[in-house]
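Bumping my old thread because nobody answered last time. Still need a sequence for this structure:
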């Protein structure tokens, strides 16, 4: 019966004749076979909502609440006996911050461990037989419920903080009723309390980026305020430093009395390769991982959505290839077998009715087994894998003949050939729509997640997306204005027709870790995307280039909670809190660096081609492709430009000679600038393509040593392990090798240093 029902659903989904379903599909060809379709005239997307501050401040009652007096704890942090995970984390975060601030250790207690009585608007608090002057109630408690506060009545992930007599109540939305999804509302309340009322900041991960003012007495003035994020999913992926895993190490049988231990190990092959290239141990990298993750909580990033739009078909060749090879992409050599084994990125034949039936079946099963999920994914696998898109007749009939021209990679016998073709948006969204129609027959209120990405980033000409599709637009990069402006126009088109649209950029994969500031452009785009209907974000990824691009990460995190904020205000606060008397000069540094970044993005490469041939820099390969990006860097980050930026930071450093912490933060920025200086120099040397490589080899040696120093002294300034992996064989034709470079540096006769390339002070 279920099989009959599924066949009915699929037949409805394919009704109206599926192009190519009855043709001979095993004829590969390089020409699109779809009808010509007149493009719709460009129309800007309508404004669907306005920008409004998310914070609501109510008239306060109650008294000033003293948390610590002259280093002595004057309160207890109370959580419910069955506290939410968010409330427990919030209590620990507040306890740790108060300890760093005052030197005192404030106790955390369950509600049942306290004796509470109320008289005259004040609470009498007794903990372990001793009176406590003040109380902080964290999360859902009987006390907060008695005062009329409940997280269930707050917006998802929202919080309320309110003084009542001598008590401070911090209550958040910690669970989404539909699907029992854990949320972080109470944890957000503590982050907001520390930032708004106690002047704490977290500029970047680690102790150096943490601003916790020292004060022996800590008190909170009477308050009553609530807040909730404007954007329900505020996701910035944690690339690399989130790639550690704790494993159990068994006892050593050779050591009597030995017991099992827990060890943090790096589970990231790319970063392991990078550390090896640098001649460093991955154990060093792992030690920094725990420090990185707290930043995400401190910036109130998170989600009240349970969505999936990632690459969905990994392993399908192993599951179905033998029985259904026709479900997979026809390659140039006539085979449908993926070109690389083991298979990780197999491509599909999107015109195949049997494949569509199977996808519908699997997605309905996923939704049935995961009733709390908002979406399941139908996105294709990522690029690469030595197999290109299907170019059978059935698929090519879905591609309008007048689609925007685009080069498509094809493969035969492991060899890639890029052929002129057209964008694949119409075929992809025809496929998505067919699946969505089938799934909606049983699950009309659930979503299917997918991307508008790479060769299918354009709005289709002939089809419009099904209303049950959740579409992640993969665009917006900030190192090439031509591509950025094209993506802004694409967003307008998508926002005009898509019901569920989110932003999924690869923006931070570009720029190769170079010093760059693009907060003004980010500010414009986040505001406009929000106003035109963006419901979520998923930025890929924070690569941990905090000394070169960290200001972008920070400003973005703030805007995602409340897009009505002005980027300039956020940047000024960053400089004021992090750099004190040197704030004016550091702000000048960022302003001039943004001007350099803008010139770089606006510049035309020497060969006239755009720098962003691919959206995601990590998918570009060595050789000729990397020059399209790096020629801009070499031309714009010149010795005089670097010298000017260094001069500003050097003056700032002198300004704070008496403040070691601020000096170290400036040294952190200088380390990033030094990296940018050497990168620009070596790429200028590569592009010069001189017959005599000795000067370039010396530069590469110097750069290698500097990169190792950055890892040892400022590991969060630039993620050198990622950079080293990313470069791969980039330097192969120079004859330079990392290990050999380190060995041979001392034996090479040093040439005079070019003007303006002095070492970091």
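Sorry it took so long. Here it is:
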């Amino acid at each position: 019966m279920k099989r009959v029902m599924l066949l009915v659903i699929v037949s409805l989904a394919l009704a109206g004749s599926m192009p190519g379903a009855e043709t001979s599909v095993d004829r590969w060809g390089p020409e699109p076979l779809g009808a010509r379709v007149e493009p719709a005239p460009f129309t800007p997307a309508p404004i669907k909502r306005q920008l409004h501050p998310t914070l609501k401040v109510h008239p306060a009652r109650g008294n000033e609440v003293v948390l610590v007096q002259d280093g002595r704890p004057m309160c207890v942090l109370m959580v419910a006996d069955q506290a939410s995970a968010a409330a427990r984390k919030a209590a620990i975060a507040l306890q740790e911050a108060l300890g760093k601030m005052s030197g005192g250790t404030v106790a955390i207690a369950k509600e049942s461990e306290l004796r509470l009585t109320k008289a005259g608007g004040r609470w009498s608090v007794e903990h372990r037989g001793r009176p406590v002057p003040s109380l902080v109630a964290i999360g859902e408690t009987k006390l907060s419920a008695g005062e009329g506060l409940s997280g269930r009545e707050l917006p998802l992930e929202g919080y309320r903080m309110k003084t009542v007599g001598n008590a401070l109540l911090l209550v958040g939305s910690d669970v989404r009723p539909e699907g029992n999804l854990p949320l972080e509302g109470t944890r957000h309340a503590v982050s907001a309390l520390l930032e708004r009322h106690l002047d704490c900041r977290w500029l970047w991960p680690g102790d150096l980026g943490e601003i916790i003012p020292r004060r022996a007495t800590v008190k909170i003035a009477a308050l009553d305020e609530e807040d909730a994020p404007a954007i329900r999913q505020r996701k910035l992926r944690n690339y690399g430093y989130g790639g550690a895993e704790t494993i159990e190490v068994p006892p050593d049988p050779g050591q009597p009395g030995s017991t099992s231990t827990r060890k943090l190990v790096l589970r990231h092959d790319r970063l392991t390769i990078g550390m090896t290239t640098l001649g460093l141990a991955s154990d060093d990298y792992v030690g920094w991982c725990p420090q990185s993750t707290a930043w995400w909580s401190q910036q109130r990033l998170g989600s009240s959505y349970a969505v999936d739009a990632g690459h969905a078909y990994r392993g399908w060749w192993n599951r179905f290839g033998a029985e259904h090879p026709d479900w997979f992409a026809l390659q140039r050599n006539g085979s449908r077998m993926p070109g690389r084994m083991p298979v990780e990125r197999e491509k599909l034949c999107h015109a195949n009715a049997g494949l569509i039936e199977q996808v519908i079946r699997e997605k309905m099963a996923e939704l049935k087994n995961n009733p709390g999920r908002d979406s399941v994914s139908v996105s294709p696998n990522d690029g690469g894998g030595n197999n290109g898109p299907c170019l059978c007749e059935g698929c090519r009939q879905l591609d309008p003949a007048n689609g925007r021209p685009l080069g498509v990679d094809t493969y035969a016998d492991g060899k890639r050939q890029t052929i002129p073709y057209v964008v694949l948006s119409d075929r992809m969204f025809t496929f998505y729509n067919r699946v969505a129609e089938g799934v909606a027959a049983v699950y009309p209120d659930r979503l299917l997640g997918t991307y508008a990405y790479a060769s299918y980033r354009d709005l289709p000409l002939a089809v419009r997306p099904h209303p049950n599709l959740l579409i992640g637009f993969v665009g917006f990069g900030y190192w090439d204005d031509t591509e950025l402006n094209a993506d802004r126009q694409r967003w307008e088109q998508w926002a005009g027709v898509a019901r569920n649209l989110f932003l999924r950029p690869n923006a931070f994969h570009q720029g190769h870790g170079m010093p760059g500031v693009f907060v003004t452009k980010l500010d414009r785009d986040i505001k406009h995307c929000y106003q035109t209907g963006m419901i979520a974000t998923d930025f890929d990824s924070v690569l941990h280039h905090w000394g070169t691009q960290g200001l972008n990460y920070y400003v973005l995190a703030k805007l995602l909670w409340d897009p009505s904020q002005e980027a300039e205000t956020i940047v000024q606060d960053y400089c004021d809190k992090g750099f004190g008397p040197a704030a004016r000069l550091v702000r000048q540094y960022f302003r001039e660096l943004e001007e350099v970044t803008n010139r770089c993005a606006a510049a035309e490469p020497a060969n006239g081609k755009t720098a962003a041939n691919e959206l995601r820099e990590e998918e570009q390969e060595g050789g000729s492709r990397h020059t399209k990006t790096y020629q801009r860097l070499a031309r714009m980050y010149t010795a005089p430009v670097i010298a000017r930026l260094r001069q500003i930071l050097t003056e700032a450093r002198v300004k704070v000679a008496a403040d070691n912490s601020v000096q170290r933060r400036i040294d952190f920025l200088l380390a990033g600038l030094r990296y940018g200086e050497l990168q620009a120099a070596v790429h200028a040397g590569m592009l010069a393509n001189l017959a005599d490589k000795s000067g370039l080899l010396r530069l590469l040696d110097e750069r290698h040593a500097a990169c190792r120093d950055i890892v040892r002294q400022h590991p969060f300034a630039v993620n050198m392990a990622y950079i080293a992996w990313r470069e791969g064989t980039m330097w192969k034709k120079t004859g330079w090798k990392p290990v050999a470079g380190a060995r041979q540096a001392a034996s090479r006769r040093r040439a005079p240093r070019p003007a303006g390339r002095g070492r970091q002070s």
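The CA atoms of residues 52 and 485 lie 26 Å apart. Let me know if any region looks off to you.
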